[in-house]
Structure prediction request, 390 residues.
Amino acid sequence: MGLTLRVIGCEASRFTGPVLGRITSSKVADPLERRDHVFRLDRLTEETDLTGYAGAVTPDVPEPWLLETWGARGVPVVHSLPSLGHLQDGDVVALSPGGQVRTLYRVASPHNVLFTTERCNSFCLMCSQPPRPVDDSGRIRELLRLIDLIDPAPRELGITGGEPTLLKNDFLLLVEHCKRRLPATALHVLSNGRLFYYGSLARKLAAIEHPDLMIGVPLYSDLDTEHDHIVQCAGAFDDTLIGLHNLGRFGIAVEIRVVLHRWSCQRLAALAEFIYRNLPFAAQVVFMGLETTGFAVPNLAELWADPADYQRDLSAAVWFLAGRGMNVFIYNHQLCVVSRDLRPFCRKSISDWKNDYLPVCAECRARDACGGFFSSSLQRRTSLHIAPIE
Prediction:
């Protein structure tokens, strides 16, 4: 997830693939535990002992013979880093021979995710992570190793893609491994739900008996033609609905996600009634602001709707569901644009590494409670009605 720092100067001898480790800035006494750690140090000197560590990172430019020494011993050293300020003890990183330090897990963040694949069987008009037909089947090994390295256990982990269920049995293996290694960590899986059309997948997932698992599935309209247009795939509406019912049938908690844009806002009240009548088992329903990145950029003229313009429709949908006992939330919206009656439903949901505010927000008394903006949105389009709340 998150931060990838590309640098020059990675010792690559006997270093042919990514190496994962948990950051430590202090010496690990147990030699067996060192293999799980990447040593963060200011300088690499003749007295430095890297024996047994998975690797090391430093802003220093070490003597060539030192790099050769530790390279020959199989300890990769990424050096000449401009800064180590973004790395904390407990973060999990991957070192690559090309001089990259990828931060896979940040111990201080509540928004960590396991990124499963770049492939997807839908092509949503506003997809923030455009799919690519790449062979990333080997990613599962990295993910399983990452889960082993996470310590202490976080409150929640996300599983996302692409479409995670395209991993099929490896997806099930991932959930099972999370249950085994991080039993107290809630899992929130983002999926288009279409492969749960096959009841066997839902049944196998339920059989894992993860204690806190939720599948977030998008539904954009009560009309099949409109939903299929938004996801750019004929038959997706039927696949998704059958998938949702299979998840419900096997007792797996589901979240209905509605990304709000010009196409999905046209029938919000009808969609809310459809959800209540056809998916009453949903654990929660979330109405989400548009992230203007990925496919949303070339499609922005077709998709953009100022949030201020759809508040009446949003209010009708939210209160219809809330009045019937369903859990409803609003994500990715600014409080100053949301109707007063809807503000109690708003949650801060944008991942911390891509969350930002406008300069005018500094004057707002509600800033700490406000969801703010996607950083990408500040570069492209925001509501015309942003103003400090006094």
